[in-house]
C-alpha cells in the first residue's frame, strides 16, 4: 500500500513546535483523536535507537493500547524517522517558514482499518497538536 501523507501549518516558532512534539508532558495533552480518548502516559527517549511509548486510552477505561516505535533518525527541529512496533515507517518533517511551521507526517498504512479512516484519525491528532502548540506561545 502507498504511504499516507497528512499536513498542518502551525502558527508558532519552530522551537515551540519541536518542544510540544517531543516533550512527554506536552505529548500527553494533545495525542488523541477525539475527546473520548486521552494519552495518560508518554515516555520518549528521543535518540537514534531510542523508543517512545504512548498509552492511548479511552476515557471510560473500555480500551487502551501502547502506541510505540523506535527512532531511526532525528535531525533537531527538522525531521524524525520512526519504525513503529508493527514495522510500519513514519517520517515527520518540520519545515520552518516566515509565518510558522509546516508539519508533514508520512506513514505506512496498517491493514486493519480503511485508509480513509487512518488518514482521518491521524489528521485529527495532528489538528489537536496544532491547537495545543499554538496555545503554548
Keywords, separated by commas or semicolons:
single chain, 137 residues, alpha+beta, Alpha-D-Glucose-1,6-Bisphosphate, Chain A, domain 4, seven-stranded antiparallel beta sheet, 3 helices
Would you summarize the structure shown here?
The protein contains three helices and seven strands, in the order βααββββββα. The chain is α+β, with helices and mostly antiparallel strands and 137 residues long.
CATH superfamily of the domain at 4-32 and 74-134: START domain
Q: Which fold name corresponds to the CATH topology of the domain at 4-32 and 74-134? A: Alpha-D-Glucose-1,6-Bisphosphate, Chain A, domain 4
Instruction: Specify the biggest β-sheet.
Output: 7 strands, antiparallel
Name the helix and strand elements from N-terminus to C-terminus, one letter apiece: EHHEEEEEEH
β-strand number: 7
| First and last CA, distance | 38 Å
Helix content: 25-40%
Radius of gyration: 14 Å
Strand order of the largest sheet: 1-7-6-5-4-3-2
**How large is the count of helical segments?**
3
Strand content: 35-45%
* CATH architecture annotation name of the domain at 4-32 and 74-134: 2-Layer Sandwich
Characterize the overall form.
globular
Mean pLDDT: 97
Structural class: alpha+beta
Stretches where pLDDT is under 50 for at least 5 consecutive residues are none
Amino acid at each position: 500500500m502507498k504511504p499516507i501523507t497528512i499536513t498542518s501549518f502551525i502558527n508558532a516558532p519552530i522551537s515551540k513546535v519541536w518542544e510540544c512534539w517531543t516533550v512527554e508532558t506536552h505529548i500527553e495533552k494533545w495525542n488523541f483523536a477525539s475527546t473520548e480518548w486521552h494519552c495518560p502516559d508518554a515516555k520518549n527517549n528521543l535518540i537514534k535507537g531510542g523508543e517512545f511509548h504512548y498509552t492511548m486510552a479511552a476515557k471510560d477505561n473500555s480500551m487502551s493500547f501502547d502506541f510505540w516505535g523506535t527512532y531511526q533518525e532525528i535531525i533537531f527541529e527538522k525531521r524524525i524517522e520512526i519504525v513503529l512496533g508493527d514495522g510500519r515507517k513514519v517520517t515527520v518533517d518540520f519545515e520552518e517558514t516566515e509565518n510558522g511551521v509546516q508539519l508533514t507526517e508520512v506513514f505506512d498504512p496498517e491493514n486493519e482499518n480503511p485508509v480513509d479512516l487512518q488518514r482521518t484519525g491521524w489528521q485529527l491528532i495532528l489538528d489537536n497538536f496544532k491547537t495545543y502548540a499554538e496555545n503554548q506561545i
